[in-house]
Amino acid sequence: MRFSSSIIIRLSLPAIILAACQQNKGNSEAAKTTGADSVPVFLLRKDTVNKQITFPAELTPLERAEIFAKVSGYVSVLKADIGDKVNKGQLLAVLEAPETLANYSQANADVQTARSRYLGSLDAYKRIVNAAKVEGTIAAGELEKVRSLMMADSAALNAARSKTNAFAQLKDYLVIRAPFNGIVTQRNVDPGTLVSAGNTRPLLVVENISILRLRVPVPELYTAANTETSTINFTVDAQPDVTYQAKLSRKAGALNLANRTETWEFLFTNNNNQLKSGMFANAILKLHRKAPTFLVPASAVVTNLEKRFVIRLKDGKAEWIDVRSGISLGDKTEIFGDLAEGDTLLKRATDEIKAGSSLVPATKAAR
Questions:
Q1: Are residues 185 and 84 in the same domain?
Q2: What's the distance, CA 293 to chain centroid?
Q3: What's the pTM value of the predicted model, to 2 decimals?
Q4: What gap in Å lies between CA 159 and CA 107, rounded to an integer?
Q5: Which of 106, 263, 266, 285 is the 20 to 30 Å CA partner of 195?
C-alpha cells in the first residue's frame, strides 16, 4: 500500500510542473498579445489654490513735485534745503528777473494810455449822441464814425488789460512756493544761479512721504488671483528683521507691455518717517482662487516644443489633452483644459507615450 502511494506521487509531480509551465507560458503570450504597459494613474479632482509668494516692490512718495522755473532769471533768495520740512504755500525761493518786471510796468502804462483814449472817445460819442437828438445837427455818417472809434478804443483797453494780467502772472512765477506739505529731497541751485524754463534739472524736489505707495509689479499669471486680505506684509533691505504692513489701495487695471505685469498699489502710513521713498521692498502676497481648480502633480504635465498636455486614460487608450498651466504649488501645478472631475490621468506623463497607446492602470487611487 505504501509502495503504491509512492508511485502515484512520483507520477503526479511531473504533470503538475508541466501544467504550471504551460500556464506561465500562456500568461506571457497573453501579455504579448495585448501589448499594454502598466502605468501609475490618479483620479482628477478639484482643490482650493492658496499660495504665498514674495514679489520685489518699491516705495514711492504719495506726492512728488519737481519744481522748475517758469521764467528766466537769477536765484535771488533760497529758503529751503534738502531735508527741510515745508508746508503748503511756504516760500521756497525768489527769482530776480528785471526784464519781467519791466514788461509788467510797461503793460501797466499801456493800460493807462488805452484807458485815457477810451474815456476820451466815449465822452465824444456821448456828446454827439446828445447833439444828434436835434434833427439835422449831426450827419448819420459822423455819428457812426465816432461810435466805431469808441468801440475800437474799448477793445484796445481790454487787450491792454489782458496783456497786463499775463505779465502779472509771470511776475508771480518769480516767487516759488511749496505745492503741498512735505520734505525737500533735492536742491540743485544756489543763490545767483541762472535758471530758465529750459533747465533739465529741477530747482527743488518736494515729496510728501507721510504716506508711501508700495508698488508691486504682479506677473500676468497671478493677476486673476485675489489676496486673502486687503493688508499685506513687506520688508525692506535696510531693516530685514522688521515686518511692516500696507493696505491695498488700487490696481492698475492693465498690463505693462514691457514686462507683462500689473501694478498693485498698497499704502503705508509712514509714522516718524521710518521708511524712505525709493527703498526697495519684498512684498509678501497670499493669493487664492475664487473657486477650486484642477491641481495635478507636476510630473503629470508634459511640455515640449509644440504643446503642453496631460495624458488621460480612457477605455484603455492614451489621450493627449492640451492644457494651460496656472499657479505652481511646489510639487503640484494648476491646469486648465478640456477635463472633468474623475478623469484618469497618468502620474508620470511623457511624450514617448503616444496618443492611442494601450495602457493598463496600476492604481486608480486618488492622489
A1: yes
A2: 26
A3: 0.69
A4: 10
A5: 106
Of the candidates 55, 63, 59, 53, the residue with the CA atom closest to the CA atom of residue 280: 59
The percent helix, strand, coil of the chain (3-state, each to 5) is 30, 40, 30
For residue range 152-211, list pLDDT tens digits in order: 888 988 888 888 887 777 788 889 999 999 999 999 999 999 998 888 899 999 999 999
- Can you read off the three cell numbers belonging to residue 189? 541751485
- The boundaries of the domain holding residue 140 are 98-173
Can you tell me the distance from the alpha carbon of 48 to that of 44, in angstroms, rounded to the nearest whole number? 13
pLDDT, tens only, 197-256? 888 899 999 999 999 999 999 999 888 888 878 899 999 988 889 999 999 999 999 999
Structural domain count, the chain:
4
Lookup: cell for 95: 527769482
**Is 86 part of a structural domain of the chain?**
yes
**DSSP one-letter code for 174:** T
Does 309 map to a domain? yes
Looking up residue 108, the CATH number of its domain turns out to be 1.10.287
Residue 19 covered by a domain? no
Residues 75, 190: one domain? yes
CA atoms within 13 A on the CB side of 168: 9
Q: Pull the grid cell for residue 322.
A: 492640451
Can you read off the three cell numbers belonging to residue 20?
Answer: 504550471
For residues 339-359, b (16+ Cβ closer than 10 Å) or e, as one string? beeebebbbebeeebeeebeb
Cell output for 171 = 511776475
